[in-house]
Amino acid sequence: MGKFNDFSALIRAACRGGWPASLQLTERAATMIANDYVNTVCEQESLKLKI
Questions:
Q1: I need a labelling partner for 45 at 20 to 30 A (CA). Which of 25, 34, 38, 51 fits?
Q2: How many CA within 13 A on the CB side of residue 18?
Q3: How many helices, marked H, and strands, marked E, lie in the chain?
């Protein structure tokens, strides 16, 4: 499996996101960026749908 030799490492990489700048950040900081992005998208979509 190469770099991802266990399932938890694969999950952490997926949660970190694929932004190149996040590769130099701590795992926590990179995950927060991905989390903020998802939250922003959800908020914007809920405003469009008036939820």
A1: 25
A2: 0
A3: 2, 0
| The amino acid at 10 | L
Q: Got the DSSP string for 33-48?
A: HHHHHHHHHHHHHHHH
Q: Is-contact 30 16, C-beta < 8 A?
A: yes
10 contacts: CB under 8 Å, gap ≥ 6: 1, 4
Q: How far apart are CA 3 and CA 39, in angstroms?
A: 29
Residue with token string 């908020």: 43
Distance in angstroms between the alpha carbons of the first and the last residue of the chain: 42
